[in-house]
Design a protein that fits this description.
Length: 173
């Protein structure tokens, strides 16, 4: 009598397990980076109230020199992923992430993000130059101006690694 073998051989099962192991080894680090990037988005979102406050101060201020008003305009409330945050005299917001909760390769020396208000550049006569790229806000001369947008990226001090920054926060306007 001739019997037909049913099922998989041991070598076939070992090959399948090896392929699954290789896929898991590649997918796990990518997933961990993605998780940190999602948490970083929440860190950036924590600065939205400061962005609104600074935009309101700059665009509605009759005062040209706003250094003092912007330096104390907002503080960011700590959350699960945010350790602290504030603004400087030029309206630049720095948010410091809680590296213990964020995970990944973040540390106390690699956990800060900066959002910089961008305004219309002016020519040599002081008139708006619509053809020029926007420039960072200079609060000593920009009162009553219009913030065109915000440039987001790693902070100069303790910069967050680029691989954890969302696409909208890669240092571009």
């Amino acid at each position: 009598m001739n019997t037909v073998q049913k099922g998989f051989t041991l070598i076939e099962l070992m090959i399948v397990i090896a392929i699954i192991g290789i896929l898991a080894a590649v997918a796990l680090p990518a997933y961990q980076d993605y998780t940190v990037k999602a948490r970083t988005s929440e860190v950036i979102l924590a600065a939205s109230s400061c962005r609104s406050t600074i935009t309101d101060i700059v665009q509605n201020s009759p005062v040209v020199d706003m250094d003092d008003a912007l330096a104390s305009s907002c503080d960011i409330t700590p959350t699960k992923f945010v350790a602290s945050g504030d603004s400087d005299e030029d309206g630049k917001i720095t948010v410091v992430a809680n590296e213990e909760k964020l995970g990944g390769d973040t540390s106390s020396t690699a956990n800060a993000i900066t959002l910089t208000p961008m305004v219309v550049a002016v020519d040599s006569e002081g008139d708006p130059d619509p053809d020029a790229d926007p420039v960072a806000l200079d609060a000593s001369t920009a009162g009553g101006g219009t913030i065109q947008g915000w440039m987001c990226g790693p902070a100069a001090t303790n910069p967050m690694p680029n691989k954890y920054l969302p696409g909208s926060c890669q240092g571009t306007y």
